[in-house]
Amino acid sequence: MNGTFEVATGRYYKDFKGKDCEIILSCSYQKELDADGDQFVKVVCRVTHNSTIFSTCFYDFFNNRDYNETVIRAYNWEINKGGK
Hints:
By secondary structure, the protein is mostly beta strands. It contains no helices and four strands.
């Protein structure tokens, strides 16, 4: 199982000038095995659209750090292909 999908976070964050930020992530996923042989899905997300030039829009989005890309390990993974 592998593929790609896009995530729009919505207008939940403010930059330091108080302007709403819209962030869109492009994500890819694939099944992998960890060191114990347990299957997980590796999800890699990166920012493809940021409505402001300030990276503060993405601050705190993952693990309270300012990432342009993040990797998530999901052990119980289902993709909802309907809706947004």
